[in-house]
Amino acid sequence: MKTCWEEAGWEQLAPDVARRRLPDWDCTVGVIVGRTDVLVVDTGSTLREGAALRAEITRLTGRRPTRIALTHPHFDHVLGTAAFAGCEAYGATGLDALLRRDREVLREDAVRHGVAPGAAAEAVDHLVPPHHAVSGEISLDLGGRSVLLANVGPGHTAHDLAVLVPGRPEVVFCGDLVEESGPPQAGPDAIPSHWPAALDRLLALGGEDARYVPGHGSVVDAAFVRDQRDELAARFGVSR
Ligand SMILES: [Zn+2]
Asked: Is the dihedral of CA 103, 189, 155, 174 positive or negative?
């Protein structure tokens, strides 16, 4: 029998843990539901998309989202954040300064990837930088369950945050440090020499049995992440 998440087009990853693959760029958005708090991982590519996500999550959980974790500063992961006004937002150290400084870069990147210019400008105008900076790891108590936010980068960008959800199975939201639907995308803001080590940290966090949720594509296992680590090391000429 399908769960309410699955009926709404989400993929249930564990009890009270789900993700949705958004249209257009196949960007993953995650949700972790505790007794007192609802944490959302990434917010979509426009205010409209963020607002639709917020409404759907509220309908499915019966509660409003209260916290946001931003995995990295790319338009398809952060531009819906203002639709979650009132939530406490978390990002890797330096993400807040970058989102204040590089709004124009973000807007141009969104338009180049096909976001309507008006929607991109609106989202950037309202962009919400994270309220809390994560260096190392912090544990968030969501009521009856806690999650770990871990600054595992740099790699895909200079501000890569992973979310570990303990349980059975354990779930790791990887952001774009891991991609399944194609080779990991390395743009001008990637830090390739550090990327393989970031995947080592991800693997240390989740272990052998976790479900690893990529920023784009299907859920993978530890062996896939290890292979991607080796491919990246070969691609960028990084020795062990
Ligand atoms: Zn990205």
From this structure: positive
Tokens of 199: 């995947």
Strand 28-33 with 38-41, pairing: antiparallel
Q: How far is CA 60 from CA 26, 57, 134, in A?
A: 21, 5, 29
**Ligand 1 centroid from CA 36, angstroms:** 30
**176 alpha carbon to ligand 1 midpoint, in Å?**
5
Structure tokens, 16: 């009270």
Distances (CA, A) of 140 to 95, 146, 184, 230: 19, 5, 29, 32
- Interacting residues of 89 by C-beta distance below 8 A, sequence separation 6+: 67, 68, 69, 70, 81, 128, 129, 130, 131, 132
CA 28 to chain centre: 7
**CA distances (Å), 116 to each of 96, 113, 203, in order?**
24, 9, 37
Ligand 1 midpoint to CA 173 (Å): 13
pLDDT tens, residue by residue, 160-207: 999 999 998 999 999 999 999 998 999 999 999 999 999 999 999 999
If you measure from the C-alpha of residue 157 to the centroid of ligand 1, how many angstroms do you get, rounded to a whole number?
7
Phi, psi of 37 (to 5 degrees): -130, 150
- For the chain, the first-to-last Cα distance in angstroms comes to 46
Model confidence at 131: pLDDT above 70: yes
Report the alpha-carbon distance of residue 47 to residue 126 in Å, rounded: 9
Give the whole-angstrom CA distance, residue 122 versus residue 107.
Answer: 9
Confirm whether pTM is higher than 0.85.
yes
